[in-house]
Amino acid sequence: MNDYNAPADLLRDKVILITGAGDGIGAQAAKTYAAHGAICILLGRTVSKLEAVYDEIVAAGGQEPAIVPLDIKGATPSHYQQMTQTIIDQFGRLDGVLHNAGILGHLSAFKDIDAQEWQDVMQINLNGMVYMTQALIPALEKADNASVIFTTSSVGRKGRAFWGTYAVSKFATEGVMQTLADEYQNKSLRFNCINPGGTRTHMRAQAFPAENPETLKTPADIMPMYLYLMGDESKKVNGQSLDCQPK
Question: Which of 35, 79, 150, 211 has the most CB within a 10 Å radius?
C-alpha cells in the first residue's frame, strides 16, 4: 500500500486526532489528512508549532482544525477523559487516531539506562498512549468505521543493542495493538501499527547524527500508508503491523 493513490475525498468530514502533530511525521499526516477532507484535532505540547500546522491547513483550504495543547509526559487518565468528553460534545464522535508522539531517549548499554529516562520514555511512548486510547474508545465507538494507528519501529520487532528503552516501548506498543485488535475483531473499530522506517525527522537525526538526511524519504513520501489505514478502504485490516519502507 506504499503506492496507494487515495481519492481526494477519502477522509471527507472524518474527525481524526493526531498526536505529536507539531512537526515531523505528525505535522505531515495532519496536513495530508486535512487535504483529503478530514477535520483534524492537533495534539502536541508546543502551541506555536500546532498553530503553524493549523495555519498551513487553513491556508491550503482544509477544514478548520482543533488544537489540543497537552504534554503527554505530565498528563493523567482524567486529562484524557476530559479531552474525550470535549471531542464528543464538539464533534459527536471520533473517526480515527494516529498515535505518533514519541521520544527516543538516549542510546546506551542496557546496564547504563537511566531510571528517570526509562520512566519518561515509557510515560510518553506507552503509558500516555494507553491511557489516551482507553479514554478515546467511547468516542471511537460512535463512528461508523474508526481506525487507530500506532507507531512502531523495526526495533520493536527485533531488539537491537543499545536501543533498549525505545525498543522495549515499541515492543509494548505492538502488544497493545495486537491485544486491542483481538478484542475488537469484527467490530467497527480497528487497530494497526505503522513502521515509518528511516525518515527525515528530528528523531532520526538524533539517533543517527552522521547520516545524510538527503538519503532518506521525507514524511510526505510515506503518507500513502497513513492514508490507506485511516480510510474506509482498509476497514477489513485489523491487527497488522505494516511497513512504509519494506526491506
Answer: 150
How does pLDDT run across 159-216, given as a tens digit for each residue? 999 999 999 999 999 999 999 999 999 999 999 999 999 999 888 888 898 999 999 9
Q: Which of 165, 241, 148, 155 has the alpha carbon at shortest distance from 198?
A: 155
Cα distance between residue 197 and residue 235, in whole Å: 23
Distance between CA atoms of residues 100 and 174, nearest Å: 14
**Residue 21, class by beta-carbon neighbours within 10 Å (0-12 exposed, 13-18 middle, 19+ buried)?**
buried
**Is residue 197 a contact partner of residue 222, using CB atoms and an 8 Å limit?**
yes
Pairing of strands 66-69, 96-99: unpaired
What is the bridge-based pairing of β-strands 39-44 and 66-69? parallel
**Burial class (CB within 10 angstroms; exposed 0-12, middle 13-18, buried 19+) of 113:** middle
Spatial contact of 191 and 146, defined as CB atoms under 8 Å apart = no
| Residues annotated as part of the active site | 166
pTM over 0.85: yes
**Cα 62 from Cα 105, distance rounded (Å):** 35
Write out the DSSP string of 22-62: TSHHHHHHHHHHHHTT-EEEEEES-HHHHHHHHHHHHHTTP
Q: Name the phi and psi angles at 218, rounded to 5.
A: -85, 165
From residue 206, alpha-carbon distances to 106, 108, 181, 189 in Å are: 9, 13, 32, 35
